[in-house]
Structure formats: C-alpha cells, structure tokens
Write a structure and sequence with these properties.
alpha+beta
C-alpha cells in the first residue's frame, strides 16, 4: 500500500517520497499511522471537499436549472431572477472555497505522507552527511591523484632537463680549457645554479608525493625522510597492510611537516616518530625534546597541517608545554 501511495503522490502531485530505512523500527509504526489515521482523515476531508464542489457547481449553474422549468412557472414567479443571482454568487463563492480547500488538503496530505512514509529528519541529515563525506573523500582523492601527477611530470620532465643541463655545463667547464675568465665564471655559476635547482626541485617533488611512497609504502618513504633530517630520528612503523593512498599521503605529509617544524623552531636534540594501526585507525605520533611552546595558531604551519588532517576525517592534537616535550598526535580513519 505504501508503494501505491508513493506512486500516487509522484504521478498526481509530482512529490517524490524517498524510501525510509528498513532497519528503523519506527518505519512500520509511522506507515501504520498514515494508513490507519491520517489517510482516513484526509479521505473524509476530501469527501467534504467533493460535496462543496457539487453544491457550488449546482448553485453556480442555477440559471440552467431554472430554464428547465415550464415557462408558465417562470412568468408566475417573475422575481426568481434576483434570487437566482444570489444563489449563483453563493455557488461561485463555494467553488472558490472548494478550490482552496482541495489545494490545502493536497498540500497537507503531501506533508503528512512525506513525514510518515518517508525517512525521518534525522535519517535525511544522516544521508546528507554520508553524501557530503563521500563527496569530500572524492575531492581529497582527486587532489592527491593530481599531486602524484604533478610529481611525475616534474620528475620525468623538468627535473630530467635540469640534470641534462647540469651535465652539459659540467662537461663544458671541464673540456673548454681555453676560455676567458669571465666566460668560465659564467659557466661555473650556471652549473652551480643548475645543481641547486635540481636539489630544490627534488625537495619539492618529495614534499608533494615521493615516488618511494607510491612504490614501497609509508615505511620506506618515512625511512628516507628520516635520513635527510639533521637530527637523530627514532622511527617506529608497524603496519601489517598498507592503508589507502590518500591516507598514506596525509600521514607522510604530517610527519614531513612535523619534522620541518622541529628543525626550524624546536631546538630539539632528538625526534621520535611512531606510526601504527589501531583497529581501523592509523595512529601517527611525533615527539621531540625541544623547547616546547608550539601553537597550531602561531603560523608555524601547524594550522595547515590540522586542516590537511581534517580533510581526511582525521583528528589532530598537539601537546607542547613551555620547556617541552612536544607531542603531535594524529589519527586517520583507514577502514577495514
């Protein structure tokens, strides 16, 4: 019966009633309330509206009925036209009332059916949240894929051209011995600038999405990152299986930015990084023995880090009392 009602509202009023969750125990009770209470009440009101239409239509066409009477009766009751005019006016008013009642009744019926035959407000909000979550996850994955594409383009394009240019400049410096001092200095400066550009571009590529992260996973990528840090880094990575590429990218970004902040601001002598999976959550801990006092609102990149974590539905917590230690805790949902 509920299917019939949904079809009726869709066909006659253009109102589409979504299906409620079958797991909700209130669904059957709400449907029974509509069919046993609201439906009969609406049907009774519709019958009253139909009666108004009939009465109004008969009264509005009173002159047609009067002209069906014999001519002798109309001549004998010559004042009937005034009375018929009043009756016709009343009939038109009843028709207008009937129209208003039917429109209002249709809206009331659609409202009741939407509330009782469709999902609850809480269920609609839950579905909306799920849609937004899926949409945001799709955008995060698309952004991560775009970062990987940029990394590949830089690595295979611009970086290779810079390497070739540096090689040619090096060969020119080594083989062209009889050059004026000014020309030799220009070649040496260009060679040095090319090597520095290659180094900076390599750092940029690794910051975007290092190739080792995609090829060998988070453990290998973080190991390479720890080796480049001018501080002792104790790295503990325990992952039975790889999380999704998006979660891996966010985790790598968290550790990379955290280590950068430690080097620039903490004055620490050692850093400890722990990455592990607890149920369906990836846990990332970065702690140092520096001076502390770090603030996510202090413009040290931590606010952007917190936003990046939030984009993956993760949590971000920072403990950094004055004098240290500083502990950064990030959790990222990675599913089963």
């Amino acid at each position: 019966m509920t299917l019939v009602q949904r079809y009726r509202f869709q066909a006659m009023l253009g109102v589409e009633i979504a299906r409620p969750s079958a797991d909700d125990p209130r669904t059957s009770r709400r449907q029974a309330q509509y069919h046993l209470l609201t439906g009969p009440a609406v049907a009774l009101a519709a019958l009253i509206g139909l009666m108004l239409w009939v009465v109004g239509l008969v009264a509005a066409t009173v002159y047609i009925w009067v002209w069906q009477l014999p001519l002798e009766w109309r001549l004998a009751h010559h004042g009937y036209s005034v009375t018929a005019a009043y009756v016709m006016g009343a009939g038109l008013a009843v028709l207008a009332l009937a129209t208003w009642v039917c429109h209002g009744l249709a809206r009331l019926d659609a409202f009741a059916a939407t509330r009782l035959l469709g999902p609850t407000r809480a269920e609609l909000l839950e579905r909306r949240v799920e849609d937004l979550t899926e949409s945001r996850a799709g955008m995060v994955e698309a952004a991560d894929a775009e970062r990987r594409r940029i990394e590949r383009d830089l690595h295979d394009g611009a970086q290779q051209r810079l390497v070739a240019m540096a090689v040619h400049l090096g060969l020119a410096k080594a083989t062209l011995g009889e050059l004026p001092e000014d020309a030799r200095k220009v070649i040496e400066d260009a060679h040095r600038e090319a090597k520095e550009a290659i180094s900076e571009l390599g750092d940029l590529v690794r910051g975007l999405h290092p190739a080792v992260l995609e090829d060998r996973g988070l453990d290998a990528a973080l190991s390479g990152l720890a080796e480049r840090v001018p501080l002792p880094v104790q790295l503990n990575v325990e992952l039975a299986e790889r999380p999704s590429p998006t979660v891996e990218a966010v985790a790598y970004f968290v550790v990379s930015e955290a280590l950068t902040n430690v080097i620039k601001h903490a004055g620490a002598s050692r850093v400890e990084v722990t990455v592990g999976r607890v149920g369906d959550t990836l846990l990332v801990l970065v702690s140092d023995d520096g001076c502390g006092g770090a603030d996510s609102a202090g413009g040290t990149g931590l606010s952007g880090l917190a936003k990046r974590v939030a984009s993956a539905d993760g949590t971000f917590a920072l403990s950094s009392p004055a004098g240290g230690p500083t502990v950064l805790t990030v959790t990222l949902p990675c599913g089963s």
